[in-house]
Amino acid sequence: MKLNEVRVYPSKVTLKREDQLAWKIAGVAADKVAVTKDVTDMIINRIIDNASVAIASVNRHPAVSARGGALGHPRKGGAQIFGAPARVTVSPEWAAWANGTAVRELDYHDTFLAADYSHPGDNIPPILAVAQTLDRSGRDLIRGIATGYEIQVDLVKAICLHEHKIDHIAHLCPAQAAGIGTLLGLKQDVIYQAVQQAVHVSFTTRQSRKGEISSWKAFAPAHAGKLAVEAVDRVMRGEGAPSPIYEGEDSVIAWLLGGKDAVYHVPLPTPGEAKRAIMDTYTKEHSAEYQSQALIDLAFRMRDSIENVDAIEKIIIHTSHHTHYVIGTGANDPQKMDPKASRETLDHSIMYIFAVALQDGFWNHETSYAPKRAGRADTVRLWHKIETVEDPEWTRRYHTLDIAEKAFGARVEILFKDGSKLVDEMAVANAHPLGAKPFGRADYIHKFEQLTNGIITTRESNRFLEAVQNLPKLGAGELSSLNVALPAGELLDSKPGIF
């Protein structure tokens, strides 16, 4: 890996494109380096993971709405939509929209956290949609996905968006565009322009994850994917982009990120170096914001030492800056303590999540968020006894790039009314690569079977799992087999819109 310095230059300085971050990203995308076997295996795992959560959410309102819009853009020989028969095909940018929303809706797929946040699995829907439309092979798809993960993870390691209140899709969209470029074997100068267009159109604020969190949290990554497909399409037709998009005097860095004096150092693979960033990422065992994964597991462990939850006086969660200020009491969001809050808000409230996990000893993507469950009087009482505080050591471990030391957990103090105290801590979730029970292929398959049980047939489940595990051998035009269809008549219809 090489660290690439990125800073703002005045317009009077002509910055050579070879010195621009977007050009270097495009160089990584255009590099025809082979994908290693372990990376290929992990890509297959994440395609299974995406399908799991997409099918589980396929009839939830945001997924239904997104699908309705996509079905308004049919295209013969286009891309498939999760849940629909493989013969139903639409324009690829709209398939990216529908499938990306279904994948993101439950907040239940993979994650990577460093200087900023990301769900790198959001790269898969647009890259897959283009691959299906243009009859690419399984190996082409693998190469494209490896690039998408690489670019997003590398940007997330170096450039913090959230401190400037910019949503994390700003790193996702250029990664998706780069991944599509790799998939299609585009030249570096074409990918360069696509990356710049993708950056330019994808900067949005974090209000989508603040206050009363709406369904846009699910739509945002899908919107990025749609923008990425469109950006690549335009530059393939000969169009250019604002340049230099990162380093220019009126660039995103100058006005939306660190400002004209900011300096970033972005790690990128050198020519011929394998793209391995997916191996630094991790999926979720529980359907909730990633920082809650270890805390859910910790709650399960601590409850075994608690005879009476009603005897609890107070719970203090000592954790990282991010956990405290984004999903903890440091956010100062009344909605995070409101039993009538939306599911999107509850899965970003560690106070609610820890209370329910401590009481129930299990977590379910539907019942744990049900309005009746959230409104239970004893839960509300416990929930309101919980507070978070930032601990500098947990913040340091959150931000370190040393994968062996990186942590997303907390130390929890449970104070009882009789003056006694129970203290425990957990650094990473059980399912994390360094956790007690790291996720392997069997766990991804189990998650798929568990989440799709009762929604698709056993025959369809077995067919998909066989196809996806044979991904490197799938030929051109065979990627429609990665679609997962519900039985006829089981897909809900969207309310009418413009399309």
Give your account of this protein's structure.
This protein is of the alpha+beta class and 499 residues long. 43% of the residues lie in helices and 10% in strands. A 4-stranded mixed sheet has the order 8-7-9-10. It has a two-stranded antiparallel ribbon with strand order 1-6. Strands 2-3 form a two-stranded antiparallel ribbon. Strand 4 and strand 5 form a beta hairpin. Helix 5 runs parallel beside helix 7. The longest helix is centred in the N-terminal third of the chain and has 21 residues. The mean pLDDT is 96.
Tell me the layout of helices and strands.
Blueprint: E1 2-7, H1 21-30, H2 37-56, H3 61-71, E2 74-80, E3 89-90, H4 92-104, E4 112-113, E5 117-118, H5 124-133, H6 138-158, H7 169-184, H8 188-201, H9 216-236, H10 252-256, E6 263-268, H11 293-303, E7 312-319, H12 321-327, H13 343-346, H14 350-360, H15 371-374, H16 377-383, E8 386-390, H17 392-399, E9 410-416, E10 421-426, H18 441-452, H19 458-469
Parallel strand pairs: 7-8
Antiparallel strand pairs: 1-6, 2-3, 4-5, 7-9, 9-10
